């Protein structure tokens, strides 16, 4: 059997948390590694339990919960599912890192030009979008 999916349940209210736990009990490939009733304890629990997923409450629709940014900053591989109990709404959040590359002229001028330029993410001008040896690519 493959390694189970490790889940930390940090959802409130209690009724929704219990419903989620009951659902997971019948899933042989899911292991609940902990429960958190206070959002302030999520980081400590993530540190202790090393979950693959954290289930949290989604309080404001269309707005990522603040705890996501904190968790992703410290534990970028953890994925988060936010559940809004009263709106029948849930969202899956995950962090990703794009690594960009661009061919550079192998000369003093080319190297100095890169050192003095802004990253492509800060500069959306058409220069960084042109084709040829100086185009950006995502690896």
Kindly report how far apart the N and C termini lie: 32 Å
Uncertain residue ranges: 120-139
Count of discrete structural domains: 2
| Percent helix range | 25-40%
Keywords:
Rossmann fold; 4 helices; single chain; 139 residues; alpha/beta; two-stranded antiparallel ribbon
What does this structure look like?
This protein has helices spanning 14-25, 42-49, 66-74, 108-116; strands at residues 5-10, 30-35, 53-57, 79-84, 89-93, 100-102, 136-138. It is elongated. It has two domains: 5-93, 3-Layer(aba) Sandwich (Rossmann fold); 100-138, no CATH class. It starts with a strand and ends with a strand. The chain has four helices and seven strands, in the order E-H-E-H-E-H-E-E-E-H-E. Mean pLDDT is 79; it is low at 120-139. By secondary structure, it is an alpha/beta fold. Strands 2-1-3-4-5 form a five-stranded mixed beta sheet, with helices on both faces. Strands 6-7 form a two-stranded antiparallel sheet. Helix content is 27%, strand content 24%. Helix 1 links the parallel strand 1 (5-10) and strand 2 (30-35).
């Amino acid at each position: 059997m493959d390694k189970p999916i490790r889940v930390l349940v940090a959802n409130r209210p209690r009724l929704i948390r219990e419903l989620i736990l009951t659902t997971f009990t019948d899933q042989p490939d899911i292991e609940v590694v902990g429960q958190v009733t206070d959002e302030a304890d999520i980081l400590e629990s993530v540190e202790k339990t090393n979950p693959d997923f954290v289930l949290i409450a989604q309080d404001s629709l269309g707005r990522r919960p603040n705890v996501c940014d904190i968790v992703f900053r410290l534990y970028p591989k953890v994925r988060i599912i936010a559940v809004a109990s009263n709106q029948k709404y849930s969202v899956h959040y995950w962090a990703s890192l794009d690594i960009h590359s661009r061919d550079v002229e192998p000369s003093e001028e080319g190297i100095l030009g890169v050192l003095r330029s802004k990253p492509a993410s800060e500069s959306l001008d058409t220069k960084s979008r042109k084709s040829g040896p100086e185009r950006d690519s995502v690896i």
